[in-house]
Amino acid sequence: MKNFKNYICIIIFVITFMFVGYINVEAKTLGDLKKELKSVEDKYSTNQSDKAQTEEEINTTKTKINSLNKQKAQVQGEIKNLNDEIDKIFKEIQSMESDIKLIINYYQLTDSPNFYLEYIFNAKDFTDFIYRLSVTEQLVDSLQGTINKYNDLKEQNIKKVNELTQKEVSLNKLEQQLSEQLTKLGSNLKTISEASIDIKDEINTLKQRINTYENTYKCSLTEELSSCQYRYEHPSNSGSSSNSGSFVPNSTGFYMPVTSGRVNANYGYSDYYGSSYHYGIDIGVSHGTPVYSIANGRVVNVTNRSSCGGNMVYIAHVVNGKSYTSAYFHLASINARVGQTVTPNTVIGYSGGVPSIETWDNCSTGAHVHLQMATGLYMTDYFWYSNFQSRSFDPRNILKFPAWGQYFSGR
Questions:
Q1: C-alpha to C-alpha distance for 210 and 43, rounded to whole angstroms
Q2: Where exactly are the structural domains of the chain?
Q3: How far apart are alpha carbons 120 and 109 in whole angstroms?
Q4: What is the pLDDT of residues 188-221, one digit of tens each?
Q5: Is 148 helix (H, G, I), strand (E, B) or coil?
Q6: What percent of the chain has pLDDT over 70?
Q7: Is the CB of residue 358 less than 8 Å from the CB of residue 265?
Q8: CATH for 249-411?
Q9: Which pTM was predicted?
Q10: 3-class DSSP assignment, residue 305
Q11: Strand residues in 232-340 grouped as ranges (E)
């Protein structure tokens, strides 16, 4: 009898465990959802503030670069003028070379015995000789003074040129630093802008969901969302208890999302995605290939023309008592609506991802379908894409995909 009681207890424990695992342990109320909306709206406000500040920093940096370019142009002009002046001085010195040579020759003659012969044949008298010597000495002093002056001026100009050249090097270095800063700011702005789009998508999704709970399901602020939705969809059982997933049709297995394709990218880190983590499996297909739901389910969210993911469909499933959500990214078009019940034979969209066609999708380089899986019911158990991402798992855990680069056929 004791063993029989123990057996009954074990059965009750197992049934209770199965039920607890099946119900929504993370159920939220409409009031909670509205608080989350307020939180994400605050997040968006911060994002816009960061965006405005980054744009201001970009404009300031551009102004600094323009100012530097003007300074560089001025320095380059000064260098050119100084070099022109140096050339002019050099030519002036060259023009005096013949006179200098004559003077040098003269002094050489004065030190030679022939000097007196020159004096005899050329000077009229001794007074004339003294006069000629005096004039020559004055000419030498004058020319030497001019040469010294020109050489000093030339050295000063060369020094200025060197200083300006160093200044130009410094300006170029500063411009390079500002250009690198501008590139970084541009990258930050792109990230902030993309995040802004994602946050706006989440805001719009939450608003639509709140509107459905509030105006269609008539949920009160304190009523659990899963209970409220169950009550709306099962009015005859409104007095009975409900569970999460009760409004999602049950399944016993999964099917491939397309009839055939090639595995272009695996789940997790890969060389193709560099340091980024890939949260799904990419299936290479032709553009416009029909995409099917992988199991019975309910469409819980649709996103149109996201900057990274394009057109996206999210479907909630309950397979063998466990809750899942599947997502299909990079669709050329969507053939499903929120709240729609789907089966593995339901075409929920058509493959896209071609940059020249789906120009709004910046995260695709060719036609394919990105299949992403997560535990729990998105838009019921949790509402943020970040939560959906953190709950993701390798689709190979439930579907028999071939190795990377291999083709498959059949669902």
A1: 18
A2: 54-191, 249-411
A3: 13
A4: 887 777 677 678 878 888 888 888 888 888 889 9
A5: helix
A6: 78
A7: no
A8: 2.70.70.10
A9: 0.60
A10: strand
A11: 250-251, 260-265, 268-269, 277-278, 281-284, 290-292, 297-306, 310-319, 322-334
Residues with Cβ within 8 Å of 58's Cβ and at least 6 positions away in sequence, in order, are 182, 185, 186, 189
Choose the CATH number for 54-191 among 3.40.1620, 1.10.357, 1.10.287, 3.90.550: 1.10.287
The model's pLDDT over 154-195, given as tens digits with 9 standing for 90+, comes to 788 888 888 888 988 998 898 899 899 988 888 888 777 767
Distance CA 17, CA 12 (A): 8
Q: What is the C-alpha end-to-end distance of the chain, expressed in Å?
A: 51
Count of other CB atoms within 10 angstroms of residue 123 = 16
Q: Quick one: which of 276, 288, 326, 331 has its CA closest to 306?
A: 331
Q: What is the pLDDT of residue 148?
A: 78
Pinpoint the alpha helices (H) of 298-337.
none
The answer to whether domain 54-191 and domain 249-411 are alike in fold is no
